[in-house]
Design brief:
It is a single chain. It contains three helices and 18 strands. It is mainly β and 247 residues long. The chain has two domains: 114 residues, Thrombin, subunit H; 108 residues, Trypsin-like serine proteases (Thrombin, subunit H, Beta Barrel). The longest helix has 9 residues.
């Protein structure tokens, strides 16, 4: 088994379904909450609706009632297993929305219940290497554009640049912008700063030496600001942390 970059297996391929009909594809990550592991992805993926107009996204008009997740198989590196999670319970959404912004925040946490024979690789929020990431620095969107996979069910890396000040909220929401040619299917992807090692600039003005790759999780991608732009919206790690803390 070749050596893999951890983010390649941390991003999980999703199919949003109504019954057995696949309505759309997307991406998710796993985060550990006090209540157990949760799947973090975009609100528009699980709701099947435009986050602004609330109109159905699928041309069929269908709204998903379940999500298929391609998980890593336990004790079998390079193998995968499909598990299905219901999105509704007694007609109500199972996912948890952001405690402050509700469905105006395009991120949700879905408690995972079908994890037999599954190996989870959760992102550890709040314990990231203090890599300096500012405007024009390289960042990567790790997910599944157009439902494509990078061999097996490994994620594909689309790399672009930080387009706004990461510490400043864009339009008064806990998001920042990136300039990256991301496409449908990457909604819910992890956005990371990945450095191959050596001397790496750190917050505070210094540098640190790393003997191998180092990755900083920055947030969750949720799509472009409009169809004509490559500017994309990323929900910050802090917003993900607030969401997961509320589960």
């Amino acid at each position: 088994m070749p050596t893999l970059s951890l983010p390649s297996v941390q991003s999980l391929f999703l199919e949003m379904c109504f019954g057995q009909q696949v309505l759309s594809t997307g991406t998710a990550i796993v985060v550990s909450a006090e209540s157990g592991p949760v799947l973090v992805t975009n609100w528009h993926n699980v709701a099947g609706r435009n986050p602004h107009t609330k109109a159905p996204l699928s041309q069929t008009g269908g709204i998903p009632d379940r999500v298929r997740i391609v998980h890593n198989r336990a004790n079998s590196p390079g193998a995968w297993v499909v598990r299905e999670e219901p999105l509704l319970l007694n007609g109500k959404a199972r996912w948890i929305e952001h405690p402050q912004h509700g469905d105006a925040a395009d991120i949700v946490a879905l408690p995972l219940t079908q994890v037999d024979d599954v190996q989870l690789y959760p992102y550890a929020l709040g314990s990231q290497p203090n890599i300096l990431v500012g405007p024009s620095d390289a960042v990567s969107v790790v997910g599944f554009p157009f439902g494509l996979r990078g061999g097996g069910s490994l994620a594909i890396w689309a790399t672009g640049f930080m387009a706004s000040e990461p510490e400043i909220n864009y339009e008064n929401m806990p998001v920042f912008l990136i300039d990256c040619r991301a496409r449908p299917g990457q909604s819910g992807s992890a956005v990371v700063a990945h450095r191959s090692g050596g001397s790496v600039a750190m917050v505070g003005g210094g540098t640190a030496m790393f003997g191998g790759p180092v990755t900083k999780f920055l947030g969750v991608y949720s799509g472009r600001i409009n169809d004509q732009s490559d500017l994309g919206i990323v929900w910050k790690e802090s917003a993900v942390a607030d969401l997961v803390a509320s589960t």
